[in-house]
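User: what does the whole thing look like in 3D?
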Amino acid sequence: MTLRRGVFLSGIAVLCAWVLVPLYLIALGAVGGRDAVNSWPKSFWPAELSLSTITAFMNIAGVWTSTLYSVEAAVLCMLFSILLGVPAGYALARFAFRGAVAFRLVVLLTRAFPVAILALPLTVSFIRLGLYDTPLGVGLMHTALALPFAVLVSASLFQAIPREFEEAAWVFGCSGITAFLRVVLPLALPGIAATAIFAFVISWNEVFAATVLTVRHKTLTAYLLSVLSESPLHVQFAGGFVLIIPSVLFIFLVRRHLFAMWGIANR
Amino acid sequence: MAEIVIDAVRKAFGPVVALESVSLRVADGEFLALLGPSGCGKTTLLRIIAGLETQTSGRVLIGGQDVSALPPRKRGLAMVFQNYAVFPHMTVAENVGFGLRMSGADKAHIARQVAQVAALLQIEPYLQRYPGQLSGGQRQRVAVARALAIEPAVLLMDEPLSNLDALLRLEMRAELKGVLQAAGTTTVYVTHDQTEAMGLADRIAVLHAGRIVQIDRPTDIYRNPATRFVGSFVGSPPMNFLTLPVANGHVELGSLRLASPTNAATVVMGVRGEDLEITAPGTGFPFAVRVVEPMGSHTLLTGSVTGQMIRVVAPSDSRPAPGDVLHVRPLQGHVSWMDAATGAALETKNR
Amino acid sequence: MRNTRLAPYLLIAPSLLFLAVLFLVPLVQTVALAFQADGPGGAAWSTANFARMAGDLNFADAIINTFEIVVIVVPLQLCLALGMAMMLRHVQRGRDIVLWIWSIPLGISDLAAGLVWLAILTDQGYLNTVLNWLGVVKGPQSWLSYETPIALLAAIVVAEAWRATAIVLVILVAGVQLVPKEYGEAADVFGATPWQRFTKIMLPLLKPSIQTALILRTVLAFEMFAIVLSLGGRNFPVLVSEAFTWQYANQNFGVAAAYAVVVMVISLAATLVYLLALRTPPEQR
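Assistant: Here's the predicted 3D structure for the full assembly of 903 residues, as structure tokens:
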């Protein structure tokens, strides 16, 4: 191995450590036992492995229910994004229609608006509609963030499926709908699943809107933010750890689609 | 089995006209090739027959029934696509049986039919595989099998061989001809490859700029091109064209004196490279050789006559050097005449 | 075929309707909210909210802090991600694993990232343990208080760089994959050095991806607030955390809306700048 190669590989290793070490350290805080959190100086190896900090955290009144609310909002966000976004993506990919460019532009532009500007007035509207302080309300708000993404990604998914597949299905006896269900959908499904997972993560991670739109039925992020200043460190670390686990898992699941999704959603 | 009638079909994409009022009749059981360069409208015409594209005006009749307003699935036809469009998420057997499944055929019938066409196209060993595991040639066979499995009245093929490499293309061409002759299906075959069209078709329709410029048997198209375009598009090397002045109803070329079919100031003489024979000096006309390409079966000579480029197909043992001046003359009766302005073939007296 | 003409509109209608109700309406409402104040005869058009926002003690700090972070973090992330993307091209074995590790932070929320770095940077945290061991500090040391503004800023920058470089990386790697290897090889054959290949071939061809990454990152950096709250509490006001405080703690929706409008205007201006500065002429596509 040449020196150059050695320097290069250590660069790669350092950058991997840069991502992984902080994750290891918060895991240490979360499962290293409660004493470790308050000890000084800190040990870089777990003195014990225990779930006591995590269970203590989950047993705090409100944590478990807010986790459930988070899941509920995220699942709703996922469903809405896919149900609304996939048909629109299909239209963008397969039909040349007046307004297609404008529609794509509107969807792209939504990225330039901060979530704060959407969430604030929705507080008032949601109170009026009875959606305030419900997971459904949070899910709807998060759909507004995830939907543009779902539209663009599914458009690129459908674009990647040759039109001839569909035309062959029509020639061999399918109607528009059966061709979609039998030929296009099965081919697009892995990508759509990845998009759905991404919508879930977007909702699971969102803090601002979730906090502003809830009072008693807080999602996990909203709960953690609201108790940030008064809760002990081990609660915060356990909370951070619980927040991170599903995200990391999901990124692992969609890793194959990550680049295809972003690569084409760019253009 | 059915006859196809295309009646004054026109197609415009916005301001761009893809097809100018095309009319055409394909007889029951006939193999018709639509030949032309890319952008000539041949694929558009095929897709209109399939119902994948809607014509701006005109009618399409299949088996005497006006199908102009019917969706593809109700036209009783099958199609082989350029990139095969073999569904990647279905096995070969499922692909071949797809059309029958869609029409609600019973399982036993589907199984019988799949087995039969699989045998015909020699894809039985792959029936349980997925298309991703097949080579291009094998996928091509699956696409043809899928089309034949439904025993269509009409078979449409859109450049089905263009994605194969040269050797495989030659092999599939012969096999396709054998299989389709046996099936006796009315076939419309789109291609830009004139050798494919010549080899496969009963008749060829040459399209140019949205119009059918000639429709005839392959040999007639080759021998008597209706326009200068057809002559230069069909055949390899393309037909030679010499623009010559007309004097007293004749043109003079070297020691040749030929009767011109027109009294216009100039006329275009068309002659194929293999219809030019090398003669003794003093006969025929002088041909200055610039490039010599030995092709094995023959030697291709490129050079000029009165400053105009022509190609001569000489015997393989003929090896002139670049710079040599040969004398060549056209074979009796193998000269075509075209109008210098329009490029249209002129009636000749010496044919 | 009337229904095929109608089909695309039917397909986009649900999402368009949804975005109108949950995007456009709130947008207009926020702007309206920001420009209205309770007068004697009910709500009236006014700039009172903006006056109150500008008069607030934290406003100037929030503006300065936000820009400081964006100006430091965004270029830092772009360079880091470009470097990582280029390195990835030369990884032969284990590329998928390296790529996965580097993109993990993509799934981590800014709140969680803040908590991760809190564990490291807090008084009795891991950083101080290391510094103590090295003899740089003696005993626990506070880095995240208002007395150490530079350290706090550095902490937030590091946490942001850790969390959000991944998104830039993913966009750039996706862009790099679209650039055929032959271009670089051609340049190589004609005598370009690796650095010239990078600056003359890769960077210009990556411009669309860089543009997307910069727009997305800048907009999101202006939105950052949970990472700041978890690390610095209210010691380090930024624009969105101020909007949050006015809405949530002070229950003053008007001033919160004014902050949101300011963030929106800045975000749109930044997007516009990127669109113009990094546009690819159509004939070069």
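In plain terms: The interface with chain A takes residues 50-52, 71-73, 77-79, 81-85, 87-89, 98-99, 102-103, 146, 150 of chain B (CB under 8 Å). Chain B has a mean pLDDT of 92.
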